[in-house]
Write a structure and sequence with these properties.
Strand content: 15-25%
Bound molecules: 4'-phosphopantetheine
CATH topology: Rossmann fold
Strand order of the largest sheet: 3-2-1-4-5
CATH superfamily: HUPs
Radius of gyration: 16 Å
Shape: globular
Number of strands: 5
Number of domains: 1
Structural class: alpha/beta
Distance between the termini: 38 Å
CATH architecture: 3-Layer(aba) Sandwich
Length: 167
C-alpha cells in the first residue's frame, strides 16, 4: 500500500462484533483502500470475550471483505492508533440521536488532539436496535439472536449460555 492510498480506522470494543458493525465496516471498505478494524481494550478489564476471541470472531465475520486488517490495541488513545496506522479518518456508524450525542464530543476531541476527521455513516435501520450489550443480555436469557450477529458469534454466545464454566 502506498502513501497515496486512503485508509480509515473502524474502532470499537467488538465484545462481540454484531451485524451492525459488519455493515459499517463493509461500507467503509467500499469508501477506503484499507480499513483497519481496531479492537481497543482496557487491559485491566477482561470483557465478556477475551481479545483473542474477539479478533477470531471478527476475522470470521469479515472473511468476505478483502481490504480489512484487524488489530488489537491495549490502553491506547485512538488518535495514536490512527497515526500509527497512517489513517486519514475514523469511520463510525450512527444508529440515532443517542449515538450522535455520545460520538460528537469524541470526534471533536480526536480532531483537537491530532486533526484526524471522523466520518459518520447512517446506520442501516435493519440493525438500529442492535448493540453488543443488548445481544449479550438477550442471549443470556435464551432469546433468539439469529441474524443480529454473525453465525460464529451466535454459536459462541449460545455455547457460553449452555456451558458458563467453559468461558
Ligand atoms: O465499541 P465501543 O465500546 O463503543 O468503542 C469505544 C471506543 C473504544 C472506540 C472508544 O472508547 C475509544 O476510542 N477508546 C480509545 C481511548 C481514547 O482514545 N479515548 C478518547 C476518545 S476521545
Amino acid at each position: 500500500m502506498t502513501s497515496q492510498q486512503r485508509r480509515c480506522v473502524c474502532p470499537g470494543s467488538y465484545d462481540p462484533v454484531t451485524m451492525g458493525h459488519v455493515d459499517v465496516i463493509s461500507r467503509a471498505s467500499a469508501l477506503y483502500d484499507e480499513v483497519v478494524v481496531a479492537v481497543l481494550h482496557n487491559p485491566a478489564k477482561r470483557g465478556t470475550f477475551g481479545v483473542d476471541e474477539r479478533m477470531k470472531l471478527l476475522g470470521a465475520a469479515l472473511a468476505a471483505v478483502p481490504n480489512v486488517r484487524i488489530e488489537a490495541f491495549a490502553g491506547r488513545l485512538l488518535v495514536d492508533v490512527c497515526r500509527e496506522a497512517g489513517a486519514q479518518a475514523i469511520v463510525k456508524g450512527l444508529r440515532g440521536d443517542t449515538d450522535f450525542a455520545y460520538e460528537l464530543p469524541m470526534a471533536q476531541m480526536n480532531r483537537h488532539l491530532s486533526g484526524v476527521e471522523t466520518v459518520f455513516l447512517p446506520g442501516d435501520p435493519r440493525f438500529g436496535h442492535i448493540s453488543s450489550s443488548l445481544i449479550k443480555e438477550v442471549a443470556a436469557f435464551g432469546g433468539d439472536i439469529t441474524g443480529l450477529v454473525p453465525e460464529e458469534v451466535r454459536a459462541a454466545l449460545v455455547a457460553r449460555v449452555q456451558n458458563p464454566e467453559g468461558s
